[in-house]
Write a structure and sequence with these properties.
Blueprint lengths: L5 H18 L18 H35 L29 H14 L22 E9 L2 E8 L2 E5 L4 E2 L4 E6 L3 E9 L5 E9 L1 H7 L1
Antiparallel strand pairs: 1-2, 2-3, 4-5, 5-6, 6-7
């Protein structure tokens, strides 16, 4: 709002006085006009001017109070900013290539080969041995269909395709140097020699179970 100045105060008082004079003009009748013979007292005109001045002063006073309050709040407001942490100090790594082992050193290869031989425990297949007939078939293609006893020795009846073979303990079956270590009425136990992920030879036990017993249990 516009502040109340002396010039504005005089203008408001003059306007109020003119309004009172118009209402006191005799000889005019009608809506909003003074009735002949009646005049507006000067005290009423002065009261109206004083009311207008007080209203204008109150409006300007309210604006000033709001501005002073805003300044006070602005001066009392405090912004808290957390301090930044100190940066970490990184120590660069010093790589000493002269102390590292040469990966292409033949002595290192010989050492690893010696360790690999020791880890294997001396287990390795007999590659000089003459292969038997059933060693040319994968073990998962061989099925046990029964047993037979001859001279107190139990033989397993193994089927490959449509052919039947009699196998006893000590014979070889499968392509992984499998040695038959046991024959029972329900299964044939085979000890194979295979290579693990590191290339070492290890033993693995496999079993061929009787197929008829599986069908009868269903």
């Amino acid at each position: 709002m516009t502040p109340l100045t002396p010039r504005r105060s005089r203008a408001i008082a003059a306007s109020a006085e003119r309004a009172g004079m118009r209402r006191a003009t005799p000889g005019r009748a009608g809506p909003g006009r003074a009735v002949p013979g009646r005049t507006v007292p000067g005290r009423a005109v002065l009261g109206l001017a004083a009311a207008l001045l007080a209203l204008a002063g109150c409006s300007d006073s309210d604006v000033q109070e709001v501005r002073q309050w805003m300044k006070q709040v602005d001066s009392q407001a405090q912004v808290h900013v957390a301090p930044l942490s100190a940066p970490k100090t990184f120590i660069p790594f010093a790589y000493a290539s002269s102390e590292a082992v040469d990966p292409f050193n033949p002595n290192k290869l010989l050492t690893e080969l010696a360790k690999s031989a020791n880890r294997g425990g001396g287990i390795k297949p007999d590659t000089e041995r003459r292969k038997e007939l059933l060693e040319s078939y994968p073990l998962d293609t061989v099925k046990m269909v029964g047993t037979i006893e001859k001279g107190g020795v139990i033989y397993a009846l193994l089927q490959v395709d449509r052919a039947l073979h009699q196998v006893r303990s000590g014979q070889h079956v499968g392509q992984n140097f499998g040695l038959v270590s046991g024959v029972s009425e329900g299964a044939v136990t085979i000890k194979e020699i295979v290579q693990d992920a590191t290339g070492d030879w290890v033993e693995r036990i496999s079993r061929l179970e009787l197929q008829e017993s599986k069908e009868g249990g269903k």
